Amino acid sequence: MADLGARVDALLEELEGELADGASAELAEARAALAGPLRVAVAGWMKVGKSTLLNALLGEPLAATDAGECTRALTVYRYGAEPAVVVVDDDGVRHERPVARAAGGELEIDLGLGPERVRLVEVSWPLAALGGVTYLDTPGLESPSPGLAARARRALLGELAGVGVDAVVYLLRHLHASDLSFLEAFAVAPRADAGPVNAVGVLARADEVGGGRLDASAAAERVADRYRHDPRLRRLVQTVVPVNGLLGVAAGRLSADDRAALGAVAELAPERRAVVLRSAELFVAAPEPAAVAPLHRAELVRRLGPYGVRLAAGWLASGSGAEAQVGEVLWRASGVPELRALLQERFAARAGALKARSALLAAERAAASCEGPQRQRLLAAVEAVAANAPELAELGVLNLLRLAPPGLPADLLEEAEGLLGGYGAGAAERLGVPSTAGPSALAEAARAAAQRWRGISESPWGDLGAARTARVVLRACEGLVAALSDGGGPPPAPGPADQQRGSPTSAGQPDGGA
User: Fold this and answer.
1) CB 379 within 8 A of CB 368
2) How far is C-alpha 352 from the chain's CA centre?
3) How many angstroms separate the Cα of 98 from the Cα of each of 103, 111, 116, 123?
4) Which among 305, 368, 345 has a CA at the least distance from the CA of 198?
5) What's the CA gap between 261 and 292, in Å, rounded?
6) Which of 137, 407, 476, 482 has its CA 20 to 30 A from that of 25?
7) Roughly how many angstroms between the first and final C-alpha of the chain, as a whole number?
8) Is pLDDT at 143 greater than 70 in this prediction?
9) Residue ranges of the domains in the chain?
10) What is the rounded distance in angstroms from the CA atom of residue 186 to the CA atom of residue 196?
């Protein structure tokens, strides 16, 4: 069976040849997005740390973090062989802007027009982190300008011309009604790429959860775990992880002088060090360590936060390692490595399916714009591609499991989510076995899962959602068996009954249809 992306691209090409210019232009954009990198939006309240987290993910402090005009515009960061900045206005006119960077490395972008007139800012940069992902840095959802806040929501829901989103990283500090209302809108939006299966929550500024104390990481993990199990949030995001973006940015940018300064703090007597580090103000004003100037101390607090300074000094004082290693310690403590791995496991690993689903929505819209027999024929062609894509069936059921759980026992719902790739797309993650398991152990686990779900699928479920879930999970198990067995081929394609009827995008909607 041809690759899903290739089949979707062929469908889009066929539709392009039949439709009028307007629809054809949208299909051309959809084809470009299908061939391009995964598009991940970073969203949340104002001042929650979106741009700081983005800089940590990029490994380069490109995104402005102050409250200037640039943070009020939707900004797209994509890979480019040469640095470039383009401002796109509301009329779609592109304005090239000079590339200038502040002393700290952040881009200084002169928009050249009022932020209300800016559709988006495109930043191209030769960064490895942008090789497979395009990031969208969104204006704060609680923007002082209602128009700008609405624009952020439209962009994330794909209603802003020229911009689409395959996945979203949503930052929150405290769980507010506005967080839930936005995520709810994203989850049930009439889009192919919307749903909890491609949304991840981040407990931002995690060091502040514990007041910057040395146990702040543990306190933040407890809060994140509570959010992960909160039924209001669990149905809207895959998971919630604590992240300290400030620490993630600073960890890789410590100079030799910075490390020496932290070493000088570590050399203070434990009692004195505890007093000096009691607050940021005390640390800056204290007479010791005399070797570290007050301005340098203030800079360390600004870049690392009180928690980062305490953590670095405490680690060095413990004798666990040398000054040269302190950046790696801070990097691990930031939570950014775990978030990067999560994005790889949950988003990048199924990028093809996410992008294909978005492209099929564009195809469906284009086909629906026709009339008469042509409309019916083209819609049938779109549905035929969707109905023979097990990847899309999996995404649809994963969304269903969160948004409107079918009538299966709780243990089967959890197992179904795992087998469909909800906890990672690899065979070991799906089967719930150790990552060190060998091929034979994986194949045996897959056969056992297939046998178990064959029986479940044959049970007389009165709930249509439960019956559909069991069929799709069985298909996934059979695909694992085929892929893991000697000479096994790709997973067999599901029939039309394994997709909800009428739309390739309705598979992500919580109506529970069979």
Assistant:
1) yes
2) 15
3) 16, 10, 20, 11
4) 345
5) 6
6) 137
7) 24
8) no
9) 38-244+337-346, 251-332, 388-508
10) 8
* Pair 74, 121: CB distance under 8 Å: yes
Cβ neighbour number for residue 183 with a 10 Å cutoff: 22
What is the value of pTM for the model shown? 0.80
Query: Cα 375 to chain center, whole Å?
Result: 35
Residue that the structure tokens 């800016």 belong to: 118
List the structure tokens of 280: 């940021």
Using a 10 angstrom Cβ sphere, with 0-12 exposed, 13-18 middle and 19 or more buried, the burial of residue 40 is buried
Pick the more confident residue, 167 or 245: 245
Are 51 and 65 within 8 A, CB to CB?
A: yes
Q: Tell whether the model's pLDDT for residue 502 goes beyond 50.
A: no
Residue 342's closest CA among 455, 163, 201, 460?
201
Residue type present at position 180: L
The span from the CA of 79 to the CA of 72, in Å, is 22
Across 411-430, average pLDDT: 91
The Cα–Cα gap between 398 and 419 comes to 10
Are 31 and 12 in contact by the 8 Å Cβ rule? The answer is: yes
- For 94-114, the pLDDT digits (tens) are 999 999 988 877 888 888 888
Amino acid type, 509:
Q
Largest CA distance in the chain: 84
What SS3 string covers 431-485? Answer: HCCCCCCCHHHHHHHHHHHHHHHHHHHCCCCCCHHHHHHHHHHHHHHHHHHHHHC
Burial state string for 390-411 with b = 16 or more CB within 10 A and e = fewer than 16: bbbbbbbbbbbbbbebbebeee
The residue to which tokens 């076995």 are assigned: 433
What residue type is 56 in one-letter code? A
Mean pLDDT to the nearest integer, 81-102? 92
Using DSSP, state whether 161 is helix, strand or coil.
coil
pLDDT tens by residue, 192-240: 345 667 789 999 999 988 777 888 889 999 999 999 989 889 888 889 9
pLDDT at 489 over 60: no
